[in-house]
Specification:
The chain is α+β, with helices and mostly antiparallel strands. The protein has helices spanning 29-41, 78-93, 104-120, 126-137, 178-186, 193-200, 206-226, 236-243; strands at residues 4-9, 13-18, 21-26, 49-53, 56-60, 65-66, 146-148, 157-160, 163-167, 174-176. The protein has 8 helices and 10 strands. The longest helix has 21 residues, at 206-226.
Length: 245
Amino acid sequence: MDPVKVVVAHDERVTLRVGDVFLKVDADRDRTDDEVAAMALAPVPTPRVLWHTPPVLALAALTGTALGRLGEPSTASAAAWVAAGAAVRRLHDAPPPPRPGPGPDELAARLAAECEWLTAHDVLPAEVITRNRRLAETALRPWTPVFVHGDLQVDHVFVADDEITGILDWSEASRGDAHFDLAVLTLGHPEHLDDVLTGYGTEIDREPIRAWWAFRCLTNIRWLAEHGYGSPGGFPESAVLESLR
């Protein structure tokens, strides 16, 4: 009998693994609908949908291992990171999904609220918050919308023999800024940005990527703290903010 393993558990979502099957239970039923729809459109490998009865989505396990983990050195080869960049380019070149992502004004309001929370709770030195907020604000400019994954964390990308075997967690997929996906993928792994951009295969302005690194960290810390992931000062996101100049 296969044991039931809890992969993720908080008050919005629970993911369980039983053998080679993942069961995602989401409080927002629309999110699993969006995930299934996005995977059907994505021109990259995704988990196979076994069945979908909202609020539960059953997915087959992917082969291979995660490209890395935030806060830990990646053991994947440079070639695997190049392959990840090529996969992201295929996604961004595909016709975008109908779902609109948040625009600059909405994101600016979110950034302001999160920075106020970080300051009020003394999570980081005020200078670090101010410096990174200014950097993050430069990402909030007009962009040409593309098909973005929307939560392309490094541990959502699976590889085997330097090939991409699948990309997980498509519930945030929408039309958005290409730089955002590239930033989330390389967050905490700046040493692999060159590899990813080599695979992406076109000239990319790196400054918006750095700006999205700051935005992602500033806007994620409160959520992580409120969902039981530990002390904010110990999050990898906090270390990234300290390092950005």
